[in-house]
Amino acid sequence: MTFSEKVKAKKFMVTSEIGPPKGVDVDSYLADAGLVKGRVDAINVTDLQSSMMRLGSMAFSRLLIERGIEPIFQMTCRDRNRLALQSDLLSAYVLGIRNVLILTGAHPALGDHPEAKPVYDLDSVGLLRAARLLEKGQDMVGKKLRGAPKFCLGAVVNPGVDPLEPELIKMEKKIEAGAEFFQTQAIFDIKPFEQFVKTVKDYGVPVFAGIVVLKSADMARFMNKHVPGIFIPENIINEIEKAEDKDAKSIEIAARLIKDLKGLAGGVHIMSIGVNKKVPLVMDAAGL
Asked: Would the pTM of this model clear 0.90, i.e. be above it?
């Protein structure tokens, strides 16, 4: 079954993610992707993650396809106007890319080229609508296409923000615009996520809970302070801080969270944040 077919069948799914290199040496990144080939349902390819200049997500997605791995092509609205965004969707389809995760994108001021001009001609809802128009055989101004693409479109949601109501309203708009699945910000506290799942149950779309493999207690405290919607409980931070083998402990915590989420989420999205070799270890520990 393809990723799209599994989404429609509401199967419990596992996705991971890779950020392309800052350069053209892709061998080690492709080797990391090979470690989970056949074990994950798809691999997200990030689009200039954290506004850092890198190899493009479309090119790397194509490399994964050539190696028998189904990618989820991430597209942000930050760097392209509606002409380029629509063109890139058509180009992605021609290259065999069928799964697209649409995000608004972090502001360039947060990245390594803070002087770069942001575009934001469309937001994530606008780009989802544009993609669905392309599927109907027309562009945003009603011009007919010579051949139409067909995508499995996804979006993101943050269950941990407070207040949650604006996030729910935007999630509803994304579904109305065409989102078929959602991936979340990192989940560390199960009870609030459980309540979120109950709230969105009638929305009828699978939600993949984000799993971040923590590197250290300092990383956890940084995320608590600087990443909106993330709350890492103090007991988890203490676990990592007291552990002699912090790598083993971080894998154990991620696996434990996956086991707790299995009956709640439509799937899990494992984010290794640059340590891709940990993903299969987390999967082993979680029994995936």
From this structure: yes
Q: What angle do CA 25, 113, 24 make, to 5 degrees?
A: 10
Q: From start to end of 66-168, where are the E strands?
A: 71-76, 99-103, 152-157
The gap from C-alpha 173 to its chain's centroid, in whole angstroms, comes to 18
- Cis peptide preceding 163, ω within 30 of 0: yes
Q: Kindly list the distances between the CA atom of residue 288 and the CA atoms of 14, 16, 40, 118, in Å, as whole numbers in the listed order.
A: 8, 13, 9, 40
Inter-residue contact 184 to 157 (CB < 8 Å): yes
Cα 121 off chain centre by: 21
For residues 230 and 197, give the distance between their C-alpha atoms in angstroms, rounded to a whole number.
Answer: 16
To the nearest 10°, the Cα dihedral for 113, 119, 122, 125?
Answer: 20
pLDDT one-digit tens code per residue, 176-210 = 999 999 999 999 989 889 999 999 999 999 999 99
State the DSSP string of 262-286. TTTSSEEEEE-TT-TTHHHHHHHHH
Per-residue pLDDT of 100-131, as tens digits, reads 999 999 899 988 999 999 999 999 999 999 99
Ramachandran bin of 64, using left for φ above 0, alpha for ψ from -120 to 50, beta for the remaining angles: alpha
The total number of residues shown for the chain amounts to 288
What's CA 33's distance to the chain center, in Å? 15
SS3 238: helix
For 24: left if phi > 0, alpha if psi spans -120 to 50, otherwise beta; the answer is alpha
CB 249 within 8 A of CB 239: yes
